[in-house]
Every structure is written in C-alpha cells, then in structure tokens.
Amino acid sequence: MNSLDLAADSDSLILVDDSDQDVGHLSKARCHEGKGILHRAFSLLIFNDAGELLIQQRSPRKRLWPLYWSNSCCSHPRSGESMEAATRRRLFEELGMVCPLKFLFKFQYQAQFDDTGSEHELCSVFIGRCSDPVEINPNEILAWRWVSPKALHEQLAAPGTVKFTPWFTMEWARIWHDHREEVLALRC
Fold first, then answer.
1. Domains (range + CATH), the chain
2. The one catalytic residue among 31, 74, 123, 130
3. Taking the model in full, what pTM does it have?
4. Which residues pair with 14 in a beta bridge?
5. What is the pLDDT of residue 32?
C-alpha cells in the first residue's frame, strides 16, 4: 500500500443512523472492516450528450471490489463537508469533470467482499450530464468507457461476463425503474 492509499484509509468518514443523522466519525479503514459500520456515501452517474453512461473499472489497488466495473464516481463526504462540496470535489479528483448534479434518492445497503471487508452505506445517488473530456485519476480508476443503457442492461443480464460492484447494480435497477425519464431527459 502506498502513501496515497494509507491517507485515503485514514480519512474520517461520517457515521450515520438509519435516518442519516450524524452519530460520529471513524476512519475509512475501520468503517469497512468486518460487516462494516453504517456511514454516509454518494454515487454519481454521469451521462454524455448521447445519453451514454460513463462507467469505470476500479483500480487493482482498491481494497474492496478491485477491477470491478462501477458507476462513474463514488465516495464519501468528509467530516464538516457538505454533500454538494463532496460530490463536486470527488467528480473532479477522479474524472477531471465539472457539471451540475441532480439528487435522485438515498438507499442503504450492506455488501460483503470476502474476508477483506464490506460496504455498509447510506448512499445518496446523483445524476448529471457532462461533455468535459475524461481525465481519470489512475490511483482510483484502471479503465473507463461510455455505455448505452441498452448495452448496460445486456451486460448486467449476462452473469459472469463483466463483474459489477453490488451498489452499482442495485442503484442502476432503481434508477431505470423509478427515474428513467430523468435519465432520458439528460440527452441533448
């Protein structure tokens, strides 16, 4: 693990209850141990002008779900940081992008990644449209691509061909079921 990985693992995350009320702070590493401790998080799904979704393959250095494909960007707000500031910060840090984001919903999940640890998050999901060039942070992302909703559904329905993170499969199912019109409205 390099110094960037160690610094990220020591970030203080916001612990929350089921109602998203702050109940304390704990290091990122500790939040992801065992079954995980419920903490605040966010997921961003960025679309281009053609209505394609930007998905990323997580870096092989990620502790949880390395090399899995996932949503455009996801992370955690820091202690004292608003959700708006955190989403803007992380979108630029990971993808070099700046765009308006629209909040869709929150959901809570717990997902175990073998004995390494787990995610246990109350996750706010946002969508946005951006035509900025993609400039990935190689510490976070191995690869990226634009995918149409149709092609994404085909890949998700073909188990074993492409590995996707559990939170992305959960949020995409809900987005497509409950928020399809908002996604389609992002096209030019």
1. 3-184 (3.90.79.10)
2. 74
3. 0.92
4. 25
5. 94
Q: What is the pLDDT of residues 108-165, one digit of tens each?
A: 999 999 999 999 999 999 999 999 999 999 999 999 999 999 999 999 988 777 899 9
**Nearest residue to 119 (alpha-carbon basis) of 4, 44, 34:** 34
DSSP structural state of residue 164: B
CA gap 139, 86 in Å, rounded: 18
Q: Please tell me which residue in 121, 130, 140, 171 is annotated as part of the active site.
A: 121
Whether residue 182 lies in the annotated active site:
no
Q: DSSP code of 8?
A: H
Q: Are 54 and 46 in contact (CB under 8 A)?
A: yes
Q: Is 74 a catalytic residue?
A: yes
> Would you tell me the crossing angle of helices 166-178 and 149-157 to the nearest 10 degrees?
130
Distances (CA, A) of 185 to 49, 50, 174: 10, 11, 17
CA 175 to chain centre: 14
Burial of 18 (0-12, 13-18, 19+ CB in 10 A): exposed
For residues 26 and 12, give the distance between their C-alpha atoms in angstroms, rounded to a whole number: 5
